[in-house]
Design brief:
alpha/beta, six-stranded parallel sheet, 184 residues, single chain
Length: 184
């Protein structure tokens, strides 16, 4: 990792996304967040919120995750941490690059984004690709992200990101934490 100013972006660790298949990733994300916070580094959480007239509803026919539903809330294991940091609501979009998040990135001088969470093949990948295209350095923590669906989707997301953002940008939690501890 470079010596830039990093932020940990915890993508969509929400009740409704932590399926039986995704549940095993929870301790890994919780541990990454805890150890990142111990390094006194910034954290941002994202939360997907669907809308009745969104493209998700109209084109994909996916009508879950409407505002105010329990499934939209950050999982209990991360709720205390999320309460200390900002939670960026993504109104029916994959990426957190809303005007609010973009202002936050500029205000804090973040130029590296360490990305973990759910789902590797959609929101994690879109966050990493948007960061890449906007000139930030994305780092995807492969052992702290997963799909809430078929494990093949997770693998497909990682494979695609190797080509979209560079294979060296896919790292483990230990790699990220060791490199950020040296930069502290």
């Amino acid at each position: 990792m470079n010596s830039g100013k990093s932020v940990l972006v915890v993508v969509d660790m929400q009740n409704g996304f932590v399926s039986t298949r995704a549940r095993p990733i929870v301790p890994h994300v919780v541990d990454l967040v805890r150890r990142w916070e111990e390094l006194d580094r910034d954290v941002v959480y994202t939360r997907f919120l669907n809308q009745p007239d969104s493209q998700f509803t109209r084109l994909i026919h996916w009508e879950r995750f409407m505002p105010g539903e329990e499934e939209t809330e950050i999982i209990p294991e991360l709720a205390e941490s999320a309460a200390r940091w900002s939670v960026i609501d993504k109104p029916a979009q994959y990426s957190p690059f809303t005007p609010e998040f973009t202002r936050m990135v500029h205000r804090n001088g973040w130029n590296e984004m360490v990305i973990c969470g759910i789902a590797t093949e959609s929101c994690v990948m879109k966050t990493a690709c948007d960061a890449f295209e906007l000139g930030y350095t994305p780092w995807v923590v492969t052992d702290a992200c997963t799909s809430h669906g078929d494990p093949k989707r997770h693998d497909a997301g990682l494979l695609t990101m190797k080509y979209f953002i560079g294979r060296d940008q896919l790292v483990t939690a230990d790699h990220v934490l060791n490199n950020n501890a040296k930069a502290a």
